[in-house]
Amino acid sequence: MTNPLVCVKRVVDSSSEVVLTEDGQGVDGRFAGFTMSAHEECAVEIAVQVAAADGGAASVMTLGDADSVEQLRAALAVGCTSATHVQADSQAYGPADVAREIAAVVRDHEAAGTPHELVLLGNDAADSGDFQVGIRLAYELGWPVVNGVTHVSVSDGEVTASGAGPDGHETFRLPLPAVVTILEGGVEPRYPSVPGRMKAKKAPIEEREPSAEPVGPSRVRLVLPPPSPSSVEILGEGAAAAPAVVDLFEQLGVLSR
Amino acid sequence: MILVLVEVSPAGEAIETSREAVTFARDLSAAGGGVPIDAVVVGSPDDALVKTLATHGVRRVHALTGPAYDAFSGAAWAAGLMAVREKAGAVVVMAAGTPRGNEVLAHVGARTGAPMAANVISFGGLSPFTVTRQVVGGAALEEMQLGMRPAIFSVAGHAVEASAADVPGDGELVVETPEVADADLVARVVSTEEPAPDLSGALKSARVVVGAGRGAGSADGFGELLELAELLDAPLGVSRVVTSLGWRPHHEQVGQTGSRISPDLYIPCGISGAIQHWAGCSSAKAILAINSDPDAPMVTKATHAVIGDLHEIVPAINEEIRRRRAG
């Protein structure tokens, strides 16, 4: 039985316009839609598949404010069976802080007799883009880590993980326990069923406080890139613009004969 | 000393984003009063590679060699980088903001306990050591202080243009064989399959890319777009909506969770230009947006645009190309 823990983060929807808080310390959520990071949707799907393959159970956790329970319920609705919420302002936590909090959950669950042999994360969060929480977590736990893969399977106490590398499709095989970080593209995240949603609504969530004060993200402030005034040249409307378009191709030298 | 991890292509050349990172390091070196720049490569570089790096201003090229480095392991590469860093006393450890670069630097961060800044586009000063990096797929920037040594950061692709230094470096090759603990070899590549020829590699290096978004309308709506791609000898790149709906395979996705492209011309058709997509195509030199909404972000950010239904415009363009070729 494999009992993976998958870690998700509530982030601004990438279709929203980004508005920053006045102090420049975070994204202003009052005007934004929220979701879980895209890579993590795939990590959740993989956790559910890995657990289903050998009769284990997939758990989900997040570190975030009260609203981030929404992302836990989204994971519960598609097959995770237990959830842990570390109550904290995620924008005040740096990657090392988050890694330490995940490690604390992993250790506490092991002490409680419900260990996780595999921890799955997204390769990078859609907002903070630190590209390192999974790796720092592995060092906290003293486990090996495979980064940025799209496919994961477990058998006989070994995890096989694979994904695109610079020279081709790369495969890693290593004994559990292990940390694996996921990129979108290898699995199709399932849609929640109606019974799944109903179950998720009622599922109990383990609420906990952070294990330590955060060091913080070394952030001075967030800024928006200077708006570049639109300098678009409209070549025309509809099919009538085709000659102007092909003129442009010729001008740019992209139209080989 | 500034230490830069340089990635080497299967053909044995320094990849462009690594040369950009070395170019970035030169500004940092100048600000520090001429701090030397050393490179670390994995494997045995040929003379041409060492010479290229010298041209970019590199003093020494440390080549990590030995069985521990034959197959990729993020932990093993980091161990090698750390060994060189300790021997040579680097105060800054850098890499390109590629999957490998960010991964290896994250290991270095975890090993040293120092912060690691991913995808830096500029540095703001040495005391305190301040960098600006891309967050939210480049839709926002974060100013970050790297107060510990080594300062660890990756350079976002195309933040600077790779260029030769005014004064070349010595380009001295130093073969390094630091030992790697068994624990650092547990998570290593056990096999690599050659990629199929049409996977995302073609997108990342293409001169022209034809883009398609929700405006294609359905999985059957790509005929004329594929035809345009063929006429321009360009790969097709699509938005996340298109792959999420299952209209096209994921390896064609351009965006924050797909490929980052930097063609001379990108032609996004029926793509609104959400953050997710813009993160993958903002490095295109010219953008011709074809969209029915003149206020779509992709149109306002483009260099050129045609307003209207792509299903009318694209066939007309294809026809015009064929007409001119026939004439």
From TrEMBL, chain A:
Its cofactor is FAD. Pfam families: ETF (PF01012). The keyword Glycoprotein does not apply. Residues 214-223 have a biased composition (Low complexity). SMART domains: ETF. Residues 193-223 are annotated as: Disordered. Signal peptide: none annotated. SUPFAM superfamilies: Adenine nucleotide alpha hydrolases-like. Keywords: Electron transport, Transport. Residues 24-217 form the Electron transfer flavoprotein alpha/beta-subunit N-terminal domain. InterPro entries: ETF_a/b_N (IPR014730), ETF_b (IPR012255), Rossmann-like_a/b/a_fold (IPR014729). Heterodimer of an alpha and a beta subunit. Belongs to the ETF beta-subunit/FixA family. The electron transfer flavoprotein serves as a specific electron acceptor for other dehydrogenases. It transfers the electrons to the main respiratory chain via ETF-ubiquinone oxidoreductase (ETF dehydrogenase). This is Electron transfer flavoprotein subunit beta/FixA family protein.
TrEMBL record, chain B:
InterPro entries: DHS-like_NAD/FAD-binding_dom, ETF_a/b_N, ETF_a/FixB, ETF_asu_C, Rossmann-like_a/b/a_fold. Residues 2-189 form the Electron transfer flavoprotein alpha/beta-subunit N-terminal domain. It comes from the Bacteria. Gene3D superfamilies: HUPs, TPP-binding domain. Its cofactor is FAD. The electron transfer flavoprotein serves as a specific electron acceptor for other dehydrogenases. It transfers the electrons to the main respiratory chain via ETF-ubiquinone oxidoreductase (ETF dehydrogenase). Heterodimer of an alpha and a beta subunit. Belongs to the ETF alpha-subunit/FixB family. This is Electron transfer flavoprotein subunit alpha/FixB family protein. It comes from Nocardioides hwasunensis.
